[in-house]
Amino acid sequence: MTVTGALFSNADGIMLHVPPITPPPPVLSVDGLRVELPGRAGPVFPVRGISFDIAAGETLGVVGESGAGKSMTGAAVLGLIDPGGKVSGEIRLNGERIDALPEAAMRDIRGKRIGAIFQDPMTALDPLFTIGDQLVETILTHQQIGLAQALGKAEELLASVGLPEPRQRLSSYPHQMSGGMRQRVVIAMALANDPDLVIADEPTTALDVSIQAQIIALLRKLSRERKTSVMLVTHDMGVIAEVADRVAVMYGGRIVEMGAVADVLRSPRHPYTRGLIESIPRLGQRKPRLYQIEGAMPSLDAMPAGCAFHPRCANAIERCLEPGPALELAGSSLAACWRADDPTLAQLKVDVPPGASQSRYIVEDTRPLVEVEAVSQHFSLAGSITGSWFQRLTGKPHSGVIKAVDTVSFAIARGETFALVGESGCGKSTLARAIVGLQRPTMGRVLFAGDDVAKAGAQRRFQMIFQDPYSSLNPRWRVADIIAEPIRTHGLDAGKGVRRRVDDLLAKVGLTGRDGDRYPHEFSGGQRQRISIARALAGEPEFIVCDEPTSALDVSVQAQILNLLKDLQFEFGLTLLFISHNLAVVRHMADRLAVMRNGRIVETGTADSIFTQPADPYTRQLFDAVPDIELALARADADHVIEIAAKP
Amino acid sequence: MPTLLRELLHAPAAAAAAGVLILLALLALAASWIAASDPFDPANASLIDSMTPPAWLSEGSMTYLLGTDDQGRDILSTVLYGLRVSLAVGATSVLVSMTIGVSIGLLAGSAGGWLDSIFMRIVDIQLTIPSILLALMIDGVARVMISRELHSEIAIYTIILAIGVSNWPPFARVARSRTLVERNKEYVQAARIIGVVPVRILFRHILPNILAPILVIATIDLGLAILSESALSFLGVGMPPTQPSLGTLIRTGGNFLFSGSWWIFATPALALVLIVLSVNVFGDWLRDALNPKLRKRV
């Protein structure tokens, strides 16, 4: 078999049993694709010369962090680059060039021969038309069949994506369906005209874990059953491991590594891939510290010369500044690194600072720091004036009360990390707001070191770190003023002392004193989160609530922030309340945790006991839904064995 | 801010408008140095030179570039002085509107509840009354309450107040809706957790972040205010002839329009069109430039 032939073989191992004499023509063939966009200071290149093939029935995962160029690659194949942008290189669909087609011809290809699934199912459907209307329109645009036939086909499609009662669903409007159901409809629309290729751009990112697992299973099932080729663009290695046959890892507009999923994930060759995989927290084991790639993805207007990764690479040599390197065979996959075959790179070093291997900071005081006592937070649906008038007129009783948090109690010990886990809408963020006193609970109370939190004076002793690094810092303030606010508000220091403290804090979170003179918009998401942490520390708190602190960040940056939080917790003896939907992150951070569902705690206990022996069925269901690299690879191995055994 | 300036230089129409505005403002400021003499000092009136046409016409003279009016006053001087009054009244009344509107909007947006309802209903009610009518009413009340002699002295303040009070609702609405957005942002919550007092959150955190759309309304309102003042003066209830604005000059000039001395009317009218047009073109550009959604991002 030739080297190119090896690319088409996938984890199924089908090639090994039925070796084709000539490899089948790839469904999608991309050669030397470059995308140029106008920028403020001259053109920028989000995609800088990439080549890949997708064989019939194959799923290629394109994975990378934000700014890697993965979505732009998908948009270029679909011919959806904004006017003003330039696409060069060759894109072939079943051997036929489609990169230079006029817009009208491209429209015919989109929806008929290439289907698209986008990230947000909430905006992908038109709210003014029924599901049936939209499906029928998609079908009739590309197929010469009657309305009745199209309706029948629409119903079939809805059934095939697993929507219950497909006939009734045809007359539903998008707002009558949940996010997961809508994403199924979007998938049905993408498949409406039996396309050769489906491009799915982050199809599960906007969904909750359990819905995400269903959509992943659906995508896998459809690609196997229909033999549709799929280009799956995602940032989530777990999703790749679950769905894809092959994977292309992108960095700085280039593919840095490509190969069979099991090969790339188990024995990555490129230093970036290695680091990325090592920096992902795992559900299966708790590491004292995550591997950390320093820095962040370069911005498009400051792309480093040579290998774009070299400024962040611990193993960079002088040659890395030269143009290239090209994707070349290294082991069983392709890698674009001069040192891909160098055995000395195999070991990644994780610096474990002394003491950090301890699972938690040990405090003498055994009294709990925070006590949540039977806290409930209810929201009335009839809050508006018109609502209550209407109710009085119609004589209807007070019906609409949402119990966002329903009689929740727990205590957090000094020095520990307590985590609240749950899917969106489970009440974890509402509970956090009540704990820090942003909202008075409807019932129950929160005690901080024995005092009611609502009391003034307790305030400096706790702080909060928010999810969105873009809205949590006042855009009009200099970073130094943002960090100084708790110091000034509580009179912790004055005059020159304030700036000295700010500089100290900046250094603690890995920034420099000079960064204090800049504005938030000059920083990346990860750096902003560091500023947020510095501000939280400035008030010298004992307790910090972290509300999804890394869910808006890329994996490599997430590792930096999680490590930083752990270091600071150890240094300052902090108590943390860590709120997250990401179970692997919670596994990495938490000493104890509570699993929330519909405003109630379904299970609480030490992380070790819950993660090894979950007692509640919902907890177990959540754990099973997480796309985990190791579990997926193990499952793929098992499938592989079954498939081989099933062959005659 | 430097990026905004750079963007302005790439928008020819807006850059030209800004240029005209700056030029007119400078001319108005320097009116007493540019003009040969104060045209409204009776001692400087020279009836011999009355009704001289502009310099480029056959009967024109180089002494009076843009001609003279019925009293022999230099039109260039009267227009420059008028421009000064118009701009001063316009800008100050916008400041009045902005101060009232933004204070009420901030208060309503952050307090919510019944206070919000009351303020917003007042806005609704005031929006049903044409602002020029309201200004006429305020001016009328002021005339009744104040003696005639005193009135011409404080006319400029009455008119600023009249226009300022009649134009605050748009500011209040925008300030309120932006406050509602900003107060739920995480940086405001962070400040609350830190323990910053509410008034400080309002003025140090929220106010600077709602200023961009306010600035846009202020620019567009400046054009409206200048027009309102001119309309009032044209109707004879604005600035007195002893201290005329562009509107007063247009009114007095209108009397000579059919006698052939068109320049007495046309010069102040042209100045008014030029300034309002420039303000609007600039305001339109500013609205787009400050809107992050319309910005091309890479």
Biggest beta sheet attributes of chain A: 8 strands, mixed
SS class of chain A? alpha/beta
**What's the gyration radius of chain B in Å?**
23 Å
Any low-confidence stretches of chain A, pLDDT <50, length ≥5?
A: 1-19, 383-387
Tally the helices of chain B: what do you get?
Answer: 12
Number of strands of chain B: 0
CATH homologous superfamily label of one domain in chain A: P-loop containing nucleotide triphosphate hydrolases
What is the end-to-end distance of chain B? 19 Å
Looking at CATH, the homologous superfamily of chain B is MetI-like
CATH topological fold name of chain B = MetI-like fold
Q: CATH top level of one domain in chain A?
A: Alpha Beta
Can you offer a commentary on this structure?
The complex is a heterodimer of chains A (648) and B (298). With 648 residues, chain A is of the alpha/beta class. In chain A, 34% of the residues lie in helices and 21% in strands. Chain A is built from 22 helices and 22 strands. In chain A, the strands form four sheets. Chain A has an eight-stranded mixed beta sheet, with helices on both faces. Chain A has a six-stranded mixed beta sheet with strand order 18-19-20-15-21-22, sandwiched between helices. A four-stranded antiparallel beta sheet of chain A has the order 2-1-4-5, covered by helices on one side. In chain A, helix 9 packs across helix 21 (617-625), helix 10 (237-243) packs parallel to helix 22 and helix 15 (479-489) runs parallel beside helix 17 (525-538). The longest helix of chain A is centred in the middle third of the chain and has 18 residues, at 209-226. Chain B has 298 residues and is an all-alpha fold. Helix content of chain B is 72%, strand content 0%. The radius of gyration of chain B is 23 Å and the shape is elongated. Chain A binds chain B through residues 37-40, 44, 300-301, 436-438, 456, 459-460, 462-464, 466-468, 471-476, 485-486, 489-490, 532, 535, 539, and chain B through 185-187, 189-196, 205, 208-209, 296, 298.
